[in-house]
């Protein structure tokens, strides 16, 4: 850990100014909430007889045959919206269609205050399922016994009771997950999930460009789907058909959390989704979604020949990979999002898998960062210090842990860092932002490394299964990672 005397300013993002230079609305959740609030005030005043989600469906969101079966019919006449400005109208319509263009620009997504990005359509689908109180819906009989299936459905899928599908999961994540893996099974060059992307500007977000080969299940789509499940579950639980969405979205994305629960915010979507989702439930629901799709008239050609056993195998593969990558692994904010400057010189590649993980604290900044703008500013300040004062090529750490629910990419999984002199090519350096001589990081931040990061690194073959965790002080003359944090990590699996 670097102790340094330099004073840095915690740069804060200016209160989102919602219009870009060209006058168009910025692709930020604040702009979405602004439009939602206009629509809801019109709804309240009796000028609009549709809720925001019904309106969105009338305009083409979440309106496939599959969605209509589970959410009910959408308004057929696309409503006229005289009370929205021209730019608000085109912004709203643009957002309802999720797709990736050939240029790798992902459309239908917005930047959130927490530094992550969501696709709007699965989010709205989940909210609509919640508002309609749709969870368990009967699966049509022909879904399980399709005339085109040649293999006999096994008894397990025909237990004699009507099978049900969970509409909330189906319209958000499970259909998309099943289809993505079915496509990847049929085409070896098609990746099933990911990737993340970068905004052209965090201050004036307009274009979001993916960081690699596109899949239908981008990180932003998955974020939107998980948020849709979390918000939908909240709404079903409250039985609140008339709840205004503007305040709900504010609480969840930029406020104190749903119903005042600090942990029920977008920052903790992975943890919250895991809590809501029983083990095994997800796999069954992916299967049910694929069965229902197969039963629909204009279905995917890929599905028409697939028997229940094949669908079961696809569901099982999909849920295993999804769970590892998006539920067990921590969400890591990429360099482009915290405003990293380029690496100086030529980085050296690590030889994976590594055997060690070295735990650090930053010491200064001495205070934990609790919001994305604070954590991003800390990352920039540390990189500046390491590059300019220490004359290193880049920020020293492999990964950095915020107290906002996220980890931040330093040098990342593949490049040798500058964190633990003499051992930089042997292990990853993971640093908690703050000074932990006398206090501990938040329990959720500790858990992110202890339970998520280490497991993720093993499953991803980044570290050996028999890895060793050391505190920085075991490797050199330093107090890092602080007395209190050092005691704590001695209880961790793999500590020696
Ligand atoms: C909603 O308003 C439109 C005209 O603005 C009207 O055609 C439609 O019948 C109304 N729907 C309901 C359910 O009242
Ligand atoms: C299905 O169940 C029936 C009666 O419960 C049984 O007779 C039959 O052998 C079972 N079929 C399979 C393939 O297990
Ligand atoms: C397979 O996937 C790749 C990558 O997405 C795509 O370019 C190609 O057209 C697909 N091939 C077929 C036969 O669909
Ligand atoms: C965003 O992408 C569109 C095309 O998708 C392009 O016309 C526009 O210039 C881009 N804007 C910026 C700020 O790069
Ligand atoms: C850890 O596992 C690797 C490969 O399984 C093995 O080569 C290595 O000797 C093990 N290290 C220790 C310290 O047990």
Automatic annotation (TrEMBL):
Q: Which residues form the Peptidoglycan recognition protein family domain?
A: 330-476
- Signal sequence, renumbered to the chain: 1-23
**Which Pfam families does this entry report, sorted A to Z?**
Amidase_2 (PF01510)
InterPro entries this protein is in?
A: Amidase/PGRP_sf (IPR036505), Amidase_domain (IPR002502), PGRP (IPR015510), PGRP_domain_met/bac (IPR006619)
Q: Name one GO molecular function term.
A: peptidoglycan binding
- Keywords assigned by UniProt, alphabetized: Immunity, Signal
Q: Name one GO biological process term.
A: immune system process
SUPFAM superfamilies reported in the protein's UniProt record: N-acetylmuramoyl-L-alanine amidase-like
Where do the N-acetylmuramoyl-L-alanine amidase domain residues begin and end?
A: 343-482
Task: Tell me the protein family, please.
Answer: Belongs to the N-acetylmuramoyl-L-alanine amidase 2 family.
Which protein, by its recorded name, is this? Peptidoglycan recognition protein 2
What organism is this sequence from? Pelodiscus sinensis (Chinese softshell turtle)
């Amino acid at each position: 850990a670097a102790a340094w005397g330099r004073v840095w300013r915690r740069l804060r993002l200016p209160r989102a100014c919602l219009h870009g230079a060209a006058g168009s609305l910025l692709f930020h959740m604040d702009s979405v909430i602004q439009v939602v609030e206009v629509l809801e005030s019109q709804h309240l005043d009796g000028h609009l007889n549709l809720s925001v989600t019904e309106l969105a469906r009338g305009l083409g969101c979440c309106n496939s045959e599959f969605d209509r079966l589970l959410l009910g019919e959408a308004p057929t006449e696309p409503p006229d919206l005289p009370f929205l400005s021209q730019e608000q109208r085109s912004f709203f319509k643009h957002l309802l269609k999720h797709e990736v263009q050939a240029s790798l620009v992902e459309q239908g997504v917005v930047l959130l205050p927490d530094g992550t990005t969501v696709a709007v359509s699965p989010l709205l689908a989940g909210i609509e399922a919640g508002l309609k109180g749709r969870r368990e819906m009967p699966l049509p009989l022909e879904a399980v016994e399709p005339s085109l299936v040649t293999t006999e459905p096994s008894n397990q899928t025909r237990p004699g009771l009507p099978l049900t599908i969970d509409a909330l999961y189906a319209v958000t994540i499970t259909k998309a997950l099943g289809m993505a893996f079915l496509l990847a099974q049929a085409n070896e060059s098609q990746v099933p999930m990911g990737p993340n992307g970068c905004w052209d500007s965090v201050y004036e977000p307009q274009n979001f460009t993916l960081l690699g080969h596109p899949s239908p299940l981008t990180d932003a789509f998955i974020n939107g789907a998980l948020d849709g499940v979390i918000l939908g579950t909240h709404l079903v639980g409250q039985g609140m058909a008339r709840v205004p969405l503007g305040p709900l979205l504010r609480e969840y994305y930029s406020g104190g959390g749903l119903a005042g629960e600090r942990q029920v915010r977008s920052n903790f979507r992975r943890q919250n989704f895991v809590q809501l989702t029983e083990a095994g439930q997800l796999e069954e629901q992916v299967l049910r979604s694929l069965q229902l799709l197969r039963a629909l008239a204009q279905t995917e050609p890929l599905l028409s020949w697939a028997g229940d056993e094949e669908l079961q195998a696809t569901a099982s593969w999909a849920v295993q990979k999804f769970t590892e990558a998006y539920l067990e692994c921590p969400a890591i904010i990429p360099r482009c999002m915290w405003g990293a400057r380029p690496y100086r010189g030529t980085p050296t590649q690590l030889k994976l898998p590594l055997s060690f993980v070295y735990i650090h604290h930053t010491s200064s900044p001495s205070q934990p960062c609790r919001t994305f703008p604070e954590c991003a500013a800390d990352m920039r300040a540390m990189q500046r210090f390491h590059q300019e004062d220490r004359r290193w090529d880049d920020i020293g750490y492999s990964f950095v842990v915020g107290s906002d629910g996220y980890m931040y990419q330093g040098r990342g999984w593949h490049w040798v860092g500058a964190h633990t002199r003499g051992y930089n090519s042997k292990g990853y350096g993971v640093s908690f932002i703050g000074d932990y001589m006398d206090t501990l990081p938040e329990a959720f931040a500790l858990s992110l490394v202890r339970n998520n990061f280490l497991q993720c690194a093993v499953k991803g073959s980044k570290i050996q299964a028999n890895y060793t965790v050391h505190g920085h002080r075991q490797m050199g003359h330093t107090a890092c990672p602080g007395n209190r944090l050092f005691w704590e990590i001695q209880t961790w699996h793999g500590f020696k």
